[in-house]
Amino acid sequence: MAGKFIVLYGANNLGKSTQVELLQKTLEKKGIDVVRIKYPIYDLKPTGPLINSVLREGKKLPEDQMQQAYVQNRRDYEPTLKKMLKKGTWVIAEDYVGTGIAWGMVRGLNLAEMEKWNEGLLVPDLAFVLFGERFSDGKEAGHRNENDDVLWKTAQDMHLMLAQKYNWKKIYANQSREAVLHELIHTINESIKSNDDLSASNVSRQTTNGHSKIKEVKRVLSGEAQYLNLLEDILENGVYQDDRTKTGTKSVFGRQIRFDLSKGFPLLTTKKVFMKGITIELLWFLRAESNIKYLVDRGVHIWDSWPYKHYVAMVTEQGKEPLSMPEFIEKIKQNAQFAKKWGELGPVYGVQWRNWVGANGEEIDQIAQIVEQIKHVRDNKNSPYGRRLIVSAWNASDIQEMAKAGLPPCHTMFQFYVHDGKLSCQLYQRSADVFLGVPFNIASYALLTMMIAQVTGLKPGEFVHTFGDVHIYSNHIDQVKEQLARSIKPFPKMWINPEVTSIDNFTLEDFKVEEYDPHPAIKAPVAV
């Protein structure tokens, strides 16, 4: 089996060397013969010493001649490269053709002309480009002022432009080394056909008909890394969409992330998340509440903007001067009649969960039903409810009423799954504000899964989060980039009072987040 030729690009000081080394070690642990090279090859005469004299000794050489020396250096090494690949060796190169072209363009050379110089050279099986903010420690030296900030930024722009042109995989450098490595391995996995799969976490080597074959056993990517990858996916692949709020979004359609609840509670660590507010909101849902007064009285203001927007529209239409937002919220808190009139969101989540009105006018408590059905499935392998453990908030007859003061349900339905003494939950979310809303949704449904697992005598399994339109608002882009630059920390633990055995008996005091050490919160405006 022929080897693979993999190239890692990127402007200086983005951790290329480290990632090439980590990738090499990972592959070697799986029994793959790997050679790591870095272009140019300095011991290849005559081009290697010539390039070295320019880069490290200050010798002057016209840029076109310098780039042609790079090209010749690659051509001189190609027989050796092909021989290694033919033997089945994997070659991982730090820099290659794209590096010369990127820096050549920075220094004014013509792209089409440089492409002609490089015609006939071996095309890598896979190419990656690291991008992001340059690491503050350990600038590389001796590369013709390539650490000059303006030149560096221009070089990064050229690398990203070439990535688009040549279909290189872009990877954000300012995340954990593990996360970058996982992205490299995952992309390699996807590129290998006939089940010759790799995994950064667990790969076994098999022999079939005398040929070595790499078979994937399991790929593990932490929940938070999946979330950050989703952010990057939207930044990289999202399309611009106008939206109801007139803010504008970058949007993708159809994504999924999942969290093993036995490995920690999925409260993001790359920014602090308001868990008290999430818990109070969930208890509000379970109480079948639809008025923000319950939340306001407890210092939770995540729903304030929608009824206030409705209030302003109605009062202005009557020719009156509306209260300011702080005045409105204070009056909601102090005046029950005002709250009853203006604090209503309509028959939203909790109402649908606990008081769905059927065609015959009968109210259906979906949560109470699901608890009993889960118990039945737990105790009866052939229970008819096994694939029907669904709670829906999308009541088509109530959508217009919900939209008056609030908005139709974004997290529209969820399904439970019982297996091996564990309870898992999958949420379908039709519309997802991935920066502000999704961290709340993840924690809320993970907590709900743990609560229902406890009252049904099961252990928590997985929370699976499936998205329809998942988007970043245009006024959240900078905040997303700030979050992506942060390192992931271990998830905290969630303590739930073991004495509570009814879903209706939980209070705020029955929950405690332990060992939570997040990065600071990142503020962003809510699109209403």
Q: Supply the number of structural domains.
A: 3
Q: What amount of the residues lies in strands? A: 15-25%
Low-confidence stretches: 137-143, 193-220
Number of helices: 18
Q: Can you walk me through this structure?
A:
The protein has 3 domains: 5-221, P-loop containing nucleotide triphosphate hydrolases (Rossmann fold, 3-Layer(aba) Sandwich), CATH 3.40.50.300; 225-274 and 385-514, 2-Layer Sandwich (Thymidylate Synthase, Chain A); 302-344, no CATH class. 41% of the residues lie in helices and 20% in strands. The model is unreliable at 137-143 and 193-220 (pLDDT under 50). The protein has a 6-stranded mixed β-sheet with strand order 8-9-15-14-13-12. Strands 2-3-1-4-5 form a 5-stranded parallel β-sheet, sandwiched between helices. β4, α6 (149-166) and β5 (169-172) form a beta-alpha-beta unit. The chain is built from 18 helices and 17 strands. With 528 residues, it is an alpha/beta fold. The two termini are 56 Å apart.
Provide a compact summary of the structure.
About 40% of the residues lie in helices and about 20% in strands. It is α/β, with parallel strands linked by helices. The protein folds into 3 domains: about 220 residues, P-loop containing nucleotide triphosphate hydrolases (Rossmann fold, 3-Layer(aba) Sandwich); about 180 residues, 2-Layer Sandwich (Thymidylate Synthase, Chain A), CATH 3.30.572; about 45 residues, no CATH class.
Structural topology:
Layout (H helix, E strand, L loop, with lengths): L4 E5 L6 H14 L4 E5 L8 H11 L5 H24 L3 E5 L2 H10 L4 H7 L8 E6 L17 H18 L2 E4 L4 H15 L10 E7 L2 E8 L4 H15 L1 E3 L7 E12 L14 H12 L6 H4 L8 H13 L7 H10 L1 H7 L6 H7 E2 L5 E2 L1 H14 L10 E3 L6 H7 L5 E9 L2 E12 L3 H19 L3 E15 L3 H8 L8 E4 L14 E4 L14
Parallel strand pairs: 1-3, 1-4, 2-3, 4-5, 14-15
Antiparallel strand pairs: 6-7, 8-9, 9-15, 10-11, 12-13, 13-14, 16-17
Helix pairs in contact: 1-7, 2-3, 3-4, 4-6, 8-18, 9-17, 12-13
